[in-house]
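A.,

Following up on our hallway conversation. Structure tokens first:
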């Protein structure tokens, strides 16, 4: 037990000595390894900001010729995380237009799982990019002299590229369904609008251009992480020994040390 505690303290002491040797070196940022990581950091910000910051509304006009001949606006506000089944309709002014309690009716669908998965993953990527850049520019020698750190970085890069594909595809499908659920089809889905004494006309829905941009940045992140895998792979021990063994095999018998 005592030997295990001593071994742990020794490892912590060595790690502390390595981490204390912080030396700022911006040269890795001029190389593809660091430069692409900066692009990934920026792209992740746009990914979660364009999706997580969205708020919109859909509205339509209602009239009942026998009671309310003029059109009244009915609105349903929605936004991230896109639990549309919690977005109830509101009449303006707040009255029961055509004797209908519009608050008891909501939009259809819950797309929070896809949206939250996409945004949460983008935030984790954002934090990882910060940690990786700190390692690249502050502990360059520690990163390149170690065999474990580049390998961990390589595995994380491959996993991140795959998860960008999965999360973005899921979010793109959810976005398509959100556009349908908040579009002009809602008039046919609402029970009061199918009553013969109630006339409903679709009005408008907030532009979802920023959500389209979030999907674009999701696939852009996938491309960046997939491309960066090669440059991270070159830093690992999987790539270096091949070059060393090749040079020895081509050289044959080593040359004499002197002339």
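Then the amino acids I'd put at each of the 259 positions:
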């Amino acid at each position: 037990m005592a030997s295990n505690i001593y071994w742990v303290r020794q490892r912590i002491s060595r790690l502390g000595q390595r981490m204390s040797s912080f030396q700022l070196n911006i040269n890795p940022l001029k190389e593809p390894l660091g430069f692409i990581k900066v692009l990934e950091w920026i792209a992740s910000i746009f990914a979660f900001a364009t999706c997580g910051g969205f708020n919109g509304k859909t509205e339509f006009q209602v009239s009942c010729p026998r009671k309310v001949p003029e059109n009244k606006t009915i609105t349903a506000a929605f936004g991230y995380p896109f639990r549309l089944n919690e977005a109830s309709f509101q009449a303006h002014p707040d009255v029961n237009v055509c004797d209908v309690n519009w608050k008891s009716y909501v939009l259809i669908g819950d797309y929070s799982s896809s949206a939250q998965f996409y945004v949460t993953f983008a935030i984790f990527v954002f934090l990882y990019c910060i940690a990786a850049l700190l390692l690249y520019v502050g502990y360059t020698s520690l990163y390149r002299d170690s065999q474990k750190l580049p390998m961990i970085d390589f595995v994380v890069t491959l996993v991140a590229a795959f998860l960008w594909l999965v999360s973005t595809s899921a979010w793109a499908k959810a976005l398509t369904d959100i556009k349908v659920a908040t579009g002009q089809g809602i008039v046919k889905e609402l029970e009061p609008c199918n009553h013969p004494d109630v006339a409903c006309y679709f009005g408008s829905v907030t532009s979802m251009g920023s959500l389209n941009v979030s999907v674009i940045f999701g696939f852009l992140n996938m491309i960046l992480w997939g491309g960066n895998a090669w440059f991270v792979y070159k830093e690992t021990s999987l790539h270096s020994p091949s070059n060393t063994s090749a040079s020895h095999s081509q050289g044959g018998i080593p040359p004499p040390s002197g002339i």
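The first strand starts at residue 55 and ends at 64. Curious whether your intuition agrees with the design.

B.
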